[in-house]
Write a structure and sequence with these properties.
314 residues, four-stranded antiparallel β-sheet, alpha+beta
């Protein structure tokens, strides 16, 4: 009985161990399957993550390239705008401030990597604004060019008119000068004769200084049909050998103005001129003693120097 019981126990024990071993094998198999599945999942997730990272990297690269293109396009628009603007100084400054503000906003959006389509819309809007601005400045340039051309023509006309006016003024001045010369009075047959007064008032020419009592000056004013007529003042200046003018006194009553100069005269008379030869004679008694030497006699009117002569005393 004991052997049977022992055999039953051993058989039971062996069955139990076999069951435990089989259970352990099932656990191991389940664990391996789970691990395989987990490894598969992780592998799939790794592959997916790498693919996602690659796509993100590609998208960033594309976005960077697009942003660079946008910046280049913006720089191109601004460069063209600036080139045109430089020729117009501060014209349309309000429009200029709008363009600069829009450009700064686009640069900010590019730096922040904002929505590409929004940046593209803003960039196209800016391009339209700059194109309008350029057209306005081109129109202004055309108008200014027309005005400059008209101004050049006007300046040339003014210069031509000025030259003509100057030439006419010179011609007028020359004609007036010729008329003045033509209308001038001249004297001929000018004589200055020292006279000695003898008994009964008889006059006798002399060349002796101590015998000279008076000096007779005679001249003929030539006929001139274009000269003005009427009463004329005649002034005679007699200069002694030392150059002193023989005169009554230094009072201004014994002087006259000729070519802006005030001159002392020796004697003065008036004659009526009628465009024909007119003879005039004047006598000087004012000097008591005459010096020996050469005397110069000059004859004037208020407007003209008629002529001169000379005589000598010994």
């Amino acid at each position: 009985m004991e052997n049977k019981d022992n055999s039953k126990q051993q058989a039971s024990k062996s069955n139990q161990m076999s069951k435990e071993k089989k259970a352990n094998e099932n656990v191991y198999k389940s664990t391996i399957i789970i691990l395989v599945i987990l490894i598969g999942v992780l592998t799939f997730m790794l592959i997916t993550s790498r693919q996602s990272l690659k796509e993100v990297s590609t998208e960033r690269s594309i976005a960077t390239e697009l942003n660079l293109e946008l910046e280049k396009e913006l720089d191109s628009i601004l460069a063209e705008y600036t080139r045109v603007k430089q020729g117009y100084d501060s014209v349309l400054t309000k429009q200029d401030s709008i363009i600069q503000a829009n450009a700064e906003e686009i640069r900010r959006l590019i730096a922040q990597q904002s929505d590409y389509r929004r940046i593209r819309r803003d960039l196209e809007a800016l391009q339209r604004i700059t194109q309008n601005y350029v057209r306005e400045m081109d129109s202004l340039y055309t108008v200014n060019k027309v005005l400059r051309d008209e101004n050049i023509v006007m300046q040339q006309e003014i210069q031509r008119f000025t030259r003509q006016t100057t030439e006419l003024a010179q011609t007028k001045e020359e004609l007036e000068g010729k008329v003045e010369v033509a209308a001038a009075l001249r004297a001929f047959q000018i004589t200055a004769t020292p006279i000695r007064i003898r008994g009964r008032g008889r006059e006798e020419e002399t060349d002796r200084a101590r015998r000279t009592d008076q000096i007779k000056v005679c001249f003929t004013v030539a006929a001139n049909p274009v000269a003005s007529t009427g009463n004329k003042n005649a002034y005679v200046r007699i200069a002694d050998p030392a150059g002193n003018i023989l005169r009554v006194s230094d009072d201004e009553r014994y002087s006259f103005v000729f070519d802006a100069d005030t001159l002392q005269f020796t004697m003065r008379d008036q004659f009526n001129y009628l465009n024909m030869d007119t003879e005039v004679c004047m006598d000087w008694y004012g000097t008591e003693e005459y010096d020996e030497g050469m005397y110069l006699v000059s004859i004037f009117t208020d407007e003209y120097r008629l002529g001169e002569t000379q005589f000598s005393l010994r």
